[in-house]
Amino acid sequence: MDTATTTDVQTYETERVREFTNFILEVEGIFVSFGGVKALQDVSFTVYEGEIFSIIGPNGAGKTSMLNVISGFYKANAGRITYQGNDRTKASPEQVARMGFARTFQNIALFKGMSTLDNIMTGRIVRVKNNFLKEAFYFPAQPQEDAQREYVEQIIDFLEIQSIRKTPVGKLPYGLQKRVELGRALAMEPKILLLDEPMAGMNLEEKEDMARFVLDVNDEFGTTVVLIEHDMGVVMDISDHVVVLDHGERIAHGVPDDVRTNKDVIRAYLGEH
Amino acid sequence: MKIDPKLDTFPKLLMNRKILSPDRPAIREKDLGIWQTWNWAQVCDEVRSLACGLAAAGFKRGDKLAIVGDNRPRLYWGMAAAQCLGGIPVPLYQDSVVQEMEYVINHADVRFALVEDQEQVDKMLELSPKCPKLEQIYYDDPRGLVHYTPKNLHNYDYLIEDGVKFYADNPDYLDSEIAKGIKSDISVILYTSGTTGFPKGVILTYENILSTVNSSIEFDSLTEKEECLAYLPMAWVGDHIFSYAQSYVAGFCVSCPESGETVLHDMQEIGPTYFFSPPRIFENLLTTVLVRMEDASWIKRKMFDYFMNVAKRCGVNILEGRSVNPLDRLLYLIGKIVVYGPLKNTMGFSRMRLAYTAGEAIGPEIFEFFRSLGINIKQLYGQTEASVYITVQTDDNVKPDTCGPPFPGVEVKISDAGEILYKSPGVFKSYYKNPEATLSTRTGDGWVFTGDAGYFDDDGHLKIIDRVKDVGRLNDGTLFAPKFLENKLKFFPQIREAVTFGDGRDYVGAFINIDLEAVGNWAERHNVAYASYQELAANPQVYEMIRKCIEKTNRDLSADSEIAGSQIKRFLILHKELDADDGELTRTRKVRRRIINERFTSLIDALYSESSRGHIENIVTFEDGRKGTMIADLEIQDIATFDHMKLAS
Hints:
The complex is a heterodimer of chains A (273) and B (649). Chain A is an alpha/beta fold. Chain A has a domain at 1-91 and 225-273: P-loop containing nucleotide triphosphate hydrolases (Rossmann fold), CATH 3.40.50. Chain A is built from eleven helices and ten strands. Chain A has a six-stranded mixed beta sheet with strand order 6-7-8-3-9-10, with helices on both faces. Chain A has a four-stranded antiparallel beta sheet with strand order 2-1-4-5, with helices on one face. In chain A, α4 runs parallel beside α7. The longest helix of chain A has 18 residues, at 204-221. Chain A is globular, with a radius of gyration of 19 Å. Residues 1-11 of chain A have low confidence and may be disordered. Chain B is of the alpha/beta class and 649 residues long. Chain B has three domains: 10-277, Rossmann fold (3-Layer(aba) Sandwich); 279-467, ANL, N-terminal domain (Rossmann fold, 3-Layer(aba) Sandwich); 471-638, 2-Layer Sandwich (GMP Synthetase, Chain A, domain 3), CATH 3.30.300. Chain B is built from 21 helices and 27 strands. A five-stranded parallel beta sheet of chain B has the order 4-3-5-6-7, with helices on both faces. Chain B has a five-stranded mixed beta sheet with strand order 23-24-25-27-26, sandwiched between helices. A four-stranded mixed beta sheet of chain B has the order 2-1-11-10. In chain B, α2 packs across α3. The longest helix of chain B is centred in the middle third of the chain and has 22 residues, at 298-319. The two termini of chain B are 46 Å apart.
């Protein structure tokens, strides 16, 4: 039921042949523990370039930890992450960002007092090559700032948030804040977009909007999307591949239809009977 | 301004604009946050290429081009391009659901469609198997459409490319097609949203539209210097006249807002001089202002209250050039600097020379509020069938509760049954493929039945009471005019929509829709927690607030002997907003009584029983077209009524 809109739209297109050939991201044998708590145990999966990949699992399964490892925020105790064929296990969050990873957060991390426009502009920082002094003296920075602004305006247009361009994000409803956060991530022109529960806490309509934006981003910019989600319905409908975690372990990995019927997955979600 | 009688079609007028004022701005659109402007010369060339593109695609004289989308320059150009080729544009309401569009596209024999974006393309593709005549679909915004493969779906840009090629090969074709157009040709078919049954396609000829447009330009001395905002649905006759026809004749610039949500902001940036709107927009503006003033600092609030009182006392007199005592005049001047000026600026009314409100009655307080600020807002009564203008208020004689005297060239009379009839050069040719409806609406000698009940007051101003068929009587014979009562209720900012019942009943009962913005804001300030519209609507404090509003209305009603008997005895607050998607309102937000009677039977019965609660279960349609069931148990309250007496004024 959640997925009516997205599937309807697909019917007007010829059956899209989604074939992926290159791995963009390979995660091998990741272990993460906090003291005695084993957050991730020997998790491996691969993400193809240009696909929508989902990490799902019940609460506390280690989904966000996994995303934090990918974005360089957590250091894995063991394991390897390969990005476009290069080992990047030890890269810092900032280096990871410059490599072309952008992310959103489960509990929205925007600058509440700043406008939508300014928040998205901050996403352009990794693309700006000015130093502090040049910025402070303004003049040489101007043409560059115009170019950045143009890109940001394209994102505003893409996400249909023109009406809140100048509104402080703290005043916006939750669903729109999520959209602004997506906008900021897009402003980094990422190769891989990491979305941490983009649809959590949304109503049906907002979820469908968000699902449409995720599909459109993937479609129009060819961005690889890795997303964590709770809501099986949406995930199964828009993902090309899915990995399922439970108690820090990988219990399934594959195309949505296979994962949906996997016994371990059903048990993890519905409990043992 | 003299208009050359040889320019008797819009394509001819447009091509003449290129000679008359090639460099003046013709249309603007905000793109990527920046206003983009096209001058008349550019518009001319664009329309030429577009028309040639359509010709290359096989568009012939008499073909229909459906136009669907928000107000976009390219869609307006599509209308002109179709007219260049002797075709007929058929604009559709962009928020119609597929079934509604399917009906119109089939009924109007549409062969080509120019639509705005993916949303509309999806609708067109869904209906196209059932509309065999629909051949080609063109879209303006390619977003999300990269993987769409239907062979008859094309980007607007390709149409222009083809047009440029076609023009190079056949440089004289278009000019000869334009020259073939004559004033008695069909200019446009506008489908009326209709409170009952299927929509009817109103055929307007160039002569119809141009004759009224020419008189209106003279009447209001419109020039090429006007600025206006095109934000009302393109399928509505008002937008067609104000944003298209008048702009082509007078040569003024029309601006298309960035999106539906940014209209108020865009209006502030453009500062229109000429504005047209249903009362709702003015109501919303006033509500926003009042809500924001309640949150303002103490000193600002005091200043606002004080100077608004000054404006109330003398603003209207100053606007209409009557004598005002010097002290008030001085205070008004100060008020202009500290309050009215900034206020008008925030609303985008700084340069407003002329504003019209029409479609519904406007609240006298709202009307007076804007006039007291020095904004020349006037009322107009019009219909699609009349090319808009029937009666219009003149600048020097404006009243809050009338629609003014007949417009130049229009004759108006009242039938014995109280129905308003008119006759004018703007009267439509016929309903498309519906001769019965044409015959029953227009008499042989050209009088058109409006379906509205009304009368002329002592000054010769037309006053509208209600739809003729809706005016009823209570069981004791008291006159019951539902819309009149509902409008009175809707003048309270807390009430968004009201439906009253009473015909053939013992007393009047009412359904109320609260205004989420106004009541929500009130709830926030009074620490009333609520999670949904439904919960807020059922809140006892909200009930108390609405009860007071209705009591005040009853007190007003009691002052007039004619209607004192139709005071409201019982009411309830509905758990859902009345919605056009559920068929409860028309697309122009008019109440559809028959549907409401069907959908809310159990609540109406409860209203006329002893019960203090009503139970309702019905199916609602979500924005994406899916349906769900809504169940609610609503409280019904009694209200005090008052005996008829003359209130000391």
